[in-house]
Amino acid sequence: MTRGDDGTSACPEPGVVRALRRALSAWYRDNARDLPWRRTRDPYAVWVSEIMLQQTRVEQGLPYFERFLRAFPTVQRLAAAHEDEVFKAWEGLGYYGRARNLHRAARMVVEQSGGCFPTTAADWRRLPGVGRYTAGAVASIAFGERVPVLDGNVKRALARLFDIAECVDTPAVEARLWDLAGALVPKRNPGDLNQALMELGATVCLPRSPRCDTCPVRGQCGALRRGVQEALPVRRRAAAVPHHDVVVAVIRRRGRYLIGRRPPEGLLGGLWEFPGGKVRAGETHAEALERELREELGVGISVGEPIAAVRHAYTHLRVTLHVYACAITDGEPVAGTHTALRWARRGDFARYAFPKANHKFLGLL
Ligand code: SF4
To answer: Which of 50, 74, 125, 245 is the most buried (most CB within 10 A)?
Structure first.
């Protein structure tokens, strides 16, 4: 291994690279999990899987992937879909910005190149929602371009393999990890090596208790040699996750419920929800509901019985939804902060994509 100015590994020596490639490729051939997106080189399927599996475990994403491809089997079908259909297929998976960008990118591919996908990572990166990792994954797997990938799993495995003791969340160390990943990618079958690294991180080089006994690259692992594999990678300390109390109004009129569609940008953009909002300091739930519905819908309400209190955790935020039966006492609702309002029957809820937190009380209505 050659050493950088700071004494850390900068670029692996050719013999090390060859040994790692050989060991990883052989191991991947025999041990790769059989996943639907691995049975194809179809760029559309590979792309959808890569977007869907960001921040999502394979077991959770698998049924969504199969359902999504049944609903939208081609990029043309996805481009032609209404955004509501796309959200509905994505409902429950979270991070809805991914679905919105996938849909936008599909439209760009169809409108600008007649449905032909880019073939290089650089061109993939021009599409919305496609960063360096996704571009590298699709271009290497579907088109055989020699470009690296670096997701959380690969980062962890490389930081241990090359015994990187600095925080991996700094731009300088991240750049070094990209270089190391790039040095490992071979000319032939670059996608397989990339997937081998991802698979190693996902199934062997686990965040806690890595399975070094069964690791195909244990002989080359710097962290294992020093016995520090459990201490790596060094991560930046996560900020404390804030908690918000949110009030929610269930307003029923002649068997229908009032729901609104969230604005397209921001958290849960484009999804449908029951009206309400954050409780401010010093407010009672009833005061918060009255203020929110006046601001959001321009109506006065009376607040009735509590229906439920449900907790939900997002990545950077935890909420408790306090759900109340309410009735309009003054005015007719108009879409203010929402882009649309509907009076929906209980039986029609399945047509609307709701945030997961709303699903936790829908069954009680
Ligand atoms: Fe990870 Fe252990 Fe393999 Fe090193 S030997 S890469 S720490 S699983």
So the answer is: 50
